[in-house]
Design a protein that fits this description.
Length: 496
């Protein structure tokens, strides 16, 4: 008996099979092997064909089943994780009407900005916990204005995960968590925001039936069972956006717990136990996977665009030719904390919401030709990424999130000893690293939703902790001094 987790990303679709009894991962696979194409008809646009996600899922599932040596009929429940904030629209026959406008498409920004002003900033922040921004509601408004004939044919709109669930079950359903990330959910009144729907002129019928994040969301149809090699009636029992799901995969469910990632961009995702928001809208707040009307669990999401992409830029353009990432980390370790006064502001990958959407570029501050080397730049880059995390986490602390433990997968930037030590040193938090991924988290979510696991504690008994990094009290002052220097330079940049 096993559980299937599907992670629908913009670069690939990943699947994992988890033994329901032991909680151990049986196999994982992904498709395509090369990064999935994103179509950009115009600058700032980003679209993908939802049908391609389905084909990728089929190939990844086939590979995972072969690796595990099990039949698809052994799968007891299915969980879905997905790229957040995308828009898929279908007609009454559940046929897709246009390519999906995905998370990194920025065409809808003006629609969200106008809604923020017209609905009122106080309303948006206190009820929606966000500005409408460039999220799903604003994307649907773009379609309404620019493709009116197509808009009139829309039966339901959905998020990428809703689409995959619909393909599996034949039913268009959604979740409160998904509606909140699309900026459709009114947290004060615990319902779909009538104000948002009225402002944009959306018929309430466009919203699919709401189902719990954990629980029955439909069953695999006979046709799909034959297509994928599954058992007819296999239930879909969990779905969530990739960041809430990443938090679930790290067993981050309670107030004050933090999940972090350090890939191309960086994310810090903290759980808040009360309805709160940042008055400057520098972070986003959505319903976490375990949020209910009786239990407030909100996910506060800080996204930093310039994270691993800065580290990879240094590797390609500054570090000795042919160096590996472990070699780059070792190079950074040869330099003292603070890189002898060198600071790097890692904001060269688009406008940063944390900086109120200022289009700040990356800058190297305090460079001395007589002192600084490639090793100093390697160190300053990693410290600059850490300090941007610290800057954003202070915003989260101001919202009432007491950050004591940061959990992350043992991957990407968290493979670097410099990065880990600096993050623990400057934040004072303990860092715990785990061997897991989003597809495994979705599989365990499916087990919770199907009642195979009675509690989340039972689901994550097998979660393997690979490393713990404690703050070094003897180095804390040095890290705080380096951060103070870095922040002073950032403040000066923001004043210009």
């Amino acid at each position: 008996m096993c559980l299937l987790g599907c992670d629908i990303g913009s670069s690939s679709v990943k699947v994992s099979l988890v033994d329901a009894g032991t909680g151990k991962t049986l196999s994982s696979d992904f498709y395509p092997r090369e990064e999935a194409p994103i179509k950009a008809v115009r600058p700032g646009w980003a679209e993908q064909d939802p049908a391609s996600w389905w084909e990728y899922l089929k190939m990844a599932l086939k590979g995972a089943l072969e690796k595990a040596g099990v039949q698809g009929t052994a799968i007891r429940a299915i969980g879905i994780s997905y790229q957040m904030h995308g828009l898929v629209v279908v007609d009454k026959k559940l046929a897709v009407l246009r390519p999906s406008i995905i998370w990194c498409d920025s065409r809808a920004v003006p629609y969200g900005e106008r809604a923020f002003k017209k609905l009122g900033e106080e309303y948006c922040l206190s009820h929606l916990l966000n500005s409408p921004g460039n999220f799903t509601a604003a994307k649907l408004a773009w379609v309404k204005e620019n493709e009116p004939q197509l808009f009139r044919s829309i039966y339901k709109f959905m998020l990428p995960g809703d689409y995959i669930a619909m393909r599996l079950t034949g039913e268009p359903v959604t979740t409160i968590s998904g509606l909140s990330e699309g900026i459709f959910w009114d947290f004060k009144n615990n319902r779909v925001s009538e104000e948002v729907m009225d402002y944009f002129g959306f018929d309430p019928g466009l919203i699919s039936t709401i189902r719990p994040t954990f629980g029955e969301q439909g069953e695999v149809t006979a046709a799909v069972a034959a297509e994928l090699g599954l058992k007819k009636g296999t239930p879909v029992t969990y779905r969530a956006g990739d960041q809430p799901n990443n938090a679930l995969s790290l067993n981050v469910l309670n107030p004050g717990e933090i999940a972090a990632t350090g890939g191309t961009s960086g994310v810090v995702y903290g759980v808040n136990g009360s309805v709160n928001y940042d008055t400057l809208s520098r972070v986003n707040t959505f319903a976490h996977v375990n949020h209910t009307a009786g239990q407030t669990r909100l996910g506060v999401l800080l996204c930093i665009n310039g994270t691993g992409i800065l580290n990879s830029w240094v590797k390609r353009n500054v570090a000795p030719e042919g160096i590996s990432y472990p070699g780059l980390n070792q190079l950074a370790e040869t330099v003292e904390i603070g890189a002898e006064g060198l600071s790097i502001l890692p904001f060269g990958n688009g406008a940063e919401r944390m900086l109120q959407n200022r289009p700040a570029n990356c800058s190297i501050e305090g460079l001395n030709f007589n002192i600084h080397t490639k090793a100093h730049i390697a160190r300053a880059a990693q410290e600059g990424i850490v300090f941007s995390f610290k800057y954003g986490m202070d915003i989260m602390r101001d919202m009432g999130i007491d950050i004591r433990i940061i959990r992350a997968g043992h991957a990407n930037m968290f493979l670097s000893p410099v990065f880990r030590e600096a993050l623990a040193g400057v934040t004072g938090a303990v860092i715990e690293l785990y061997d897991t991924n989003g597809a495994v988290g979705a599989a365990k979510g499916a087990g919770i939703g199907a009642g195979i696991y009675q509690t989340t504690a039972e689901a994550f008994e097998s979660l393997e902790k690979t490393n713990v990094i404690e703050p070094d009290a003897f180095k804390a002052d040095k890290y705080c001094a380096a951060y103070s220097n870095w922040k002073e330079r950032l403040d000066k940049l923001l004043e210009d």
